[in-house]
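ARCHIVE CARD
CATEGORY: sequence design from structure
SOURCE FIELD: tokenized fold
FIELD CONTENT:
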């Protein structure tokens, strides 16, 4: 485990991952729309992948927050 994660509790890391995931989803949505508007399937696909990665990161963050909450109780 890296030093970065040792210094933070899961709740803090969970909030960061949730926010970063939402931002990545938004960026992917824009990239996908640009690819669709310019008839560029490669750009559209990259945007779709970015949205999926963002959703996964957001889900991870929510899980980290739940684990932290359970450990704090």
């Amino acid at each position: 485990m890296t030093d970065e994660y040792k210094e933070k509790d899961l709740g803090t890391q969970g909030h960061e991952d949730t926010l970063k995931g939402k931002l990545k989803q938004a960026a992917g949505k824009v990239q996908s729309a640009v690819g669709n508007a310019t008839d560029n399937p490669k750009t559209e696909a990259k945007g779709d992948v970015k949205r999926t990665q963002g959703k996964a990161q957001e889900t991870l963050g929510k899980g980290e927050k739940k684990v932290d909450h359970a450990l704090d109780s």
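CARD ANNOTATION: The longest helix spans residues 41-72. The mean pLDDT is 90.
SHELF: design records, drawer C
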